[in-house]
UniProtKB/TrEMBL annotation:
Gene3D superfamilies: 3.40.50.20, Acid Proteases (2.40.70.10), ATP-grasp fold, A domain (3.30.1490.20), ATP-grasp fold, B domain (3.30.470.20). InterPro entries: Asp_endopeptidase, ATP-grasp, ATP-grasp_RimK-type, ATP_grasp_subdomain_1, Peptidase_aspartic_dom_sf, Rimk_N, Rp_bS6_RimK/Lys_biosynth_LsyX. GO terms for biological process: SOS response; translation. Keywords: ATP-binding, Ligase, Magnesium, Manganese, Metal-binding, Nucleotide-binding, Protein biosynthesis, Ribonucleoprotein, Ribosomal protein. It comes from Maritimibacter harenae. This is Probable alpha-L-glutamate ligase.
Amino acid sequence: MTTTPLHFGWEEWLSLPDLGIPSIKAKVDTGARTSALHADDIETFGPSSKPKVRFTVRPVPGRNDIVIPCSAPVVDRREVTSSNGESENRVVIQTTLSVGGQSWPIEVTLTNRETMASRMLLGRQALLDHITISAHERMLQPELGYDVYHTSAVAKAQPRRALRVCVLSRENNYTTRRLVEEGEARGHAVEVIDTTRCYMAINALAPEVHYDGKRLPVYDAVVPRIGASITPYGTAVVRQFETIGTFCLNGSAGIAGSRDKLFAHQQMAKAGIGMPDTAFAASPKDNANLVGLVGGAPMIVKLLESTQGRGVVLAETRKAAESVIDAFRGLKANFLVQHFVKEAAGEDIRCLVIGAKVVAAMKRTGADGDFRSNLHRGGSAKKVRITAEERRTALRAARAFGLSVAGVDLLRSESGPKVLEVNSSPGFEGIETATGKNLTGLLFEEIERRARPVPKRRRKNAAD
């Protein structure tokens, strides 16, 4: 650290780059031990062992329309007595102070200084030995000014902030654990919430999501991991978060649409996305025509509620197909039939889409004697290089449902890639293992890009 002498007056311009505050006026007060920063919406979050705090700063007096969102680790809680004798328990953070070309760490308490002339107070703990104070002068350091808040440079220079992220999941599986592990490694607080234990207060003025008898906080982002068995309730919970205004990595409409196999195929057909010929009928009188619509046997008969290869049958002859269809009808089960792509030879390709990119792909091969390639059924996986057409198809399929994260399953056919399914809650274990990539990290990059709090310029009221 440099020890070039600095000369301060009783008021100075400074910046707090760790908080994304490029310019703020501070009163220099050697009578005060601790520094203080004007903050609103102060909320602590994260585990008790490593708590964080998020808050907003309005750095320009009289301009409540300029708002800087901030977050920082909590280093202490301190009882502070103000000059008028009032005591307040305050959150203490550590941040970098920059002034006169020099920077050093200081501790700052967060409090409401709305009635004070200066939005920040610089106490003696923050003043280094080589700083001299002139109590009768002010602004001895270079003037920074507030004009910077009227430019786009403020938003571009914002630091990466700690986010409060909710993972909606009922399972303690690899993907859930990786989301927590990766999020915390990047400085975020990640909370796993059991979807089925959420309940909702639905009203026009204050819609809320409750959990374990308490209202859930406002999260920066929600990562839905909705199991197929709870799709209706899970999507309702996601929709409630959307109503509140929380960023959801995948929206309720995309999750519901991709889970409804019949609707999903209709949606992909509407978007002109290649898929195996598919047919659906309600009446047993149409069995023969149904088989003919997909080119006859061999063919796939698939329950609409099937997951991970369960409820998917290969009928190798027309007679076998009609028998399976009759059996499913006897169970009053909803199903569809599909053309069997022989040339795929029991292999498919899982493309993982995050944002607007296919970030990884793996080839899955079924166990011996099984036409299904699902890893849950004993299949194996390895990294694969996909073609430009396969990449475009995967992206279009994810886009058809408005999904930011999707596992798109493709078959390689003689007439080009055919989409089997679009999964809105893809597992990460198989594809991270097969590719050796930190795909959970890429998912968090998408969350940080989309959910990152940014400075706001609110419209001023006529009365302001």
